[in-house]
Structures are given as C-alpha cells and as structure tokens.
Amino acid sequence: MKPFILANLSLLVLCFLATYLQITPWPLTLLLPSFFSLLPFFLNLWLIPGGFAWKNHHYNSPNLPGPMGWPLLGTLPQMGSLAHRKLAAMAASFGATRLMAFSLGATRVIISSHPDTAKEILSGPSFSDRPIKESARLLMFERAIGFAPSGNYWRHLRKLAANYMFSPRRISSLEGLRQRVTDEMVAGVLKEMKETGAVEVRGILQKGSLSNIIESVFGTGSGLEGEELGLMVKEGYELIAKFNWADYFPLGFLDFYGVKRRCHKLAVKVNGLVGQIIKERKKDGEFSGSDDFLSVLLSLPKEDQLSDTDMVAVLWEMIFRGTDTVAILLEWILARVVLHQDIQAKAQQEIDTCVGRNRHVQDSDIPNLPYLQAIVKEVLRMHPPGPLLSWARLAIHDVHVGKFLIPAGTTAMVNMWAITHDPSIWKDPWAFKPERFIEEELSHLSVMGSDLRLAPFGSGRRVCPGKALGLATSSLVARSASPPVQMASS
C-alpha cells in the first residue's frame, strides 16, 4: 500500500499549503484540478499486483499475487545484499511461495520459492534464454556458455563443455592440480597461525581458487598473467554488482556511475591479455596432450573449433565464474566446521577410518566418505551460492506456470535460499545438521539439479556445466581443512 499512502500524502501536503497560508496561489489553483484528474490514472499504473511493470499484462487468467512496490521503481528500493531473504519474506506474506510477481523498474519479474514451480521454470523449454545485464553484455558474457542465447551456437558450446571440458575424464585429469592447490592453502593457513595466531581465510581461499581455475584454463606457467587476471576478475565482480539504471529502464544512452565506460575498458584489457595467450599458444603449437581448457579448445576437430574471439569469451567466463563462487563455498565449509567442533571431529574420524593418515584423500575416496559429502550438501543447503540463482531465465514466449499465464519477455527467478529454508520442505531448516543427508530419506538426494529441493547449481538445460568440477574441488578441500581448522579454533 506504499504508493497509495504516498499519493494521499501528496494530496494532504497540497491541502495543508492552501489552508495554512489561507490563500490559493494561482499555480495551486491550476494544479489541484489537474492533480485530481490525473490521480486515478497514476493510481491505476502502480496500484496493481506485481507493480508498475505489470500494468499492461492483466489477462483473463488469475492475476499473479505480489507487492505493488513504489511508483516506477517497483521493488528496487528493497533489493540489496539480502534480497533473497526480503523476497522470501514477501512471498510468504502474500501466500505466493509458488509464484510471485514483482517489478524491478520497468522489468517484469516472477519468482518461485517452491520446488514444483522452480522445476517448471528451470526445466521447461519456454525459459531457455537468460536475461543479461548491460555490464555482463559489455564484459563479453553474451558469447559465453552462461548467457549465450539458445540456438546453434549455444548448443555447440554446451556440447564442447560436456564432451571435452567438464567430462569425468577431464575432471579426473585435474586431480593433481586440485590436490597441490589444496596443500598450498593448508600450508598458508598453518603459516598464518604460527606467525600471528589468527587466520583470515578469505584471502587464502580466493588466492587458491584463482590459482586452481587459471591453471585449469591455461596450464602451468601463467604467473604474472594469472595475477593480472585476478585483478580483472575482482574489478569485474565490482562492475557486475554496481547498480545500473539501464538494466531496469530503457535508458541505455545514460551512464550515471560510469559502469559502461569501465566495462568497455576492462573488456579491452581482457581481450588483449587472453587473446595474446591464445596467439602465443597457437604459435608454440604445444597443446596436444595437455589437460588445460585452452589446449583442449585448440586441439578440437576442425568442425568443432571456435574463433579466437569466442574462445576469449568462453575462457574469461570460466575464470570469472569459477573463482569467487568456489571460494565462497569453501569459506562457508570452514566456518561451519569451526562453529561445530563435534561435526568436525566426526568428519576427521571418518577420514582416519576410511583413508588413514598416511596419504591424501583422492577423488576415488569421496564415495566412501558419506559424512564428508553430507557436510558439503548441508553447507550448500544453508548457504547456496547465488541464492536467487542469479543467472535468471527469460520467457521466450507466453507460457503457463501452474495456473498463471506469464507473458513473453518476463524475467523468471528461483529463490533457492527460500526453498532450502522452508519448514514445510525441510525439518528444522535453520539447524546445521549434516546427519539429515545420512538418513535413508535424503541419503540419495543429489545436488546436481534433478531434485529441486536442493539445486544450488541450477537445473535443466541451463544447469551450471562446471558443477561436477566445483563439487570435486570443494570435497577435497573440505577434508584438508579438518586438521588446521581444529588447531585454529582451539
């Protein structure tokens, strides 16, 4: 009801001025009739379920429930770092957990906080595209796997990812790299503990995650280039996170905060650096038989090869999306085992029993470590990376979701955080209990996207292609964290 209150306040202010001053100045005389005549029109624009962006989309089917929001802005003022929590509370207050409409400026949005409607959105062909922010487009992601529009080019990228880049054999071939990076991170934690008695793990995890993904993409020997790419990734995240009016209103000609200008400059630097690496690797001709992603792309059959421009976009996206997400997940794993010493002790005991203390945990050991897997699953449930599955979907034509008709061009989100904290789906959802995944009912629950009660990597045709690699990395680092974290917290 905020817009209605604002309209009434405006009217009260005008009346107050007229009565308090005991005069009716000629502008007010002209303004009051105009205001009263236009008031119904403006109220009609935003006093509708879902808000301003839904003004022309009321069909004969039932209206979607949702907040009216602010005039023109919709629910933009309520967005922020905890948007997933705010949207979950809104959906619950409107009784719209299955589907809720709201407006982000002139952008129509629906959001699902329930597995059933989430599956319709993520797995249905009607939502096969992704909306792309201006900053993401300028940073070349429109030519990469995550944001490329559905079609032949996107299907080609997905085929390359599945068959060559994220296949089980390729992930297995990178196990040595993951193990080395893990050992380096553990050594970094121990060193800081000895020198200062405290550890700020975020920097260590981000450095390790960046090193892992850059060597996975380019191979060894990328020293200075890796550091420069790390700075570019950091700037890219800053730009993606910045508010940009052009993402919500047709104001592409404006650049209030310099986002477009900075994105252009960063894209030029990325093109220059990654493009140069590709040229040098081609010139050397030493890429057959190597396991890094660049070598894989360069050694593809002629009919599958990408242009240099497309390779830059694909490799840059892998570095960008593969760095921060994994680091955040690892940080939450560490935080949880520090807070729950009993859980840490159980995980260590399982490792000692199944693997022993004389060798590293290997990928082949993970299936025999159910409690360690349960810890990772429980962290993904309580702290899903990208809790709104931020890479949302776009309706490519009019489509029904449940009993509601969704118009083409509508952005569709899934609030995975709301789903994983819903007491009607999860027993005691606010408690950190890895044991829930040991119990028979949930012991076989997969996080790979087949069960929408827990799908942190998405689902359907747009599921994250690197989910298996990310899970393998997090599992190995989770077991390596046990001894040093125990020392750090004692």
UniProtKB/TrEMBL annotation:
Residues that bind heme: C464
Keyword Metal-binding: yes
Family matches, as SUPFAM superfamilies: Cytochrome P450
TM region positions: 31-54
Keywords: Heme, Iron, Membrane, Metal-binding, Monooxygenase, Oxidoreductase, Transmembrane, Transmembrane helix
Cofactor(s) this protein requires: heme
This protein's record includes keyword Transmembrane: yes
PROSITE patterns for the chain: CYTOCHROME_P450
Pfam assignment, any one: p450
GO terms, molecular function: heme binding; iron ion binding; monooxygenase activity; oxidoreductase activity, acting on paired donors, with incorporation or reduction of molecular oxygen
Protein family (similarity comment): Belongs to the cytochrome P450 family.
PANTHER family named among the record's database cross-references: CYTOCHROME P450 78A7-RELATED, CYTOCHROME P450 FAMILY PROTEIN, EXPRESSED
Protein name from the UniProt record: Uncharacterized protein
Organism expressing this protein natively: Nyssa sinensis
